[in-house]
Amino acid sequence: MQVLVRDNNVDQALKVLKKKMQREGVFREMKMRKAYEKPSEKRAREKGEAVRRARKAARKQAQREGLIPGPKKKPRPAFGRPAAGAGAGAGAGAGAR
After folding, report:
1. Alpha-carbon distance 12 to 3, whole Å?
2. Averaged over 58-75, what is the pLDDT?
3. Is the same domain home to 23 and 43?
4. Which residues lie below 8 Å from residue 26, measured CB to CB, with a gap of 6+?
5. pTM of the entire structure?
6. Does pLDDT of 77 surpass 90?
7. Which residues, other chains included, contact 82 with Cβ-Cβ below 8 Å and sequence gap of 6+?
8. Per-residue pLDDT averaged across 81-87, rounded?
9. How far apart are CA 85 and CA 83, in angstroms?
10. Under DSSP, is residue 86 helix (H, G, I), strand (E, B) or coil?
């Protein structure tokens, strides 16, 4: 795993590294290896994980087929940039005349 440090910004590089490690499951793996896991507990955990994966796959398939609605889309806020073609004052109150 590799993270580039730009402009001596180590804090930002650490943030990116932690995010990558979280996505890869490194922290979960370290936590699991900290203590011994009995074989019976391991089987139960793996079975539960398999059930969750199967449920998630079934839910995704049902959403693709239109049987259940998909996840709600969050509105994205505009951070200081006006919409394409809109001037400075064409935003909020222009259509309320």
Report:
1. 10
2. 89
3. no
4. none
5. 0.52
6. no
7. 88, 90, 91
8. 58
9. 6
10. coil
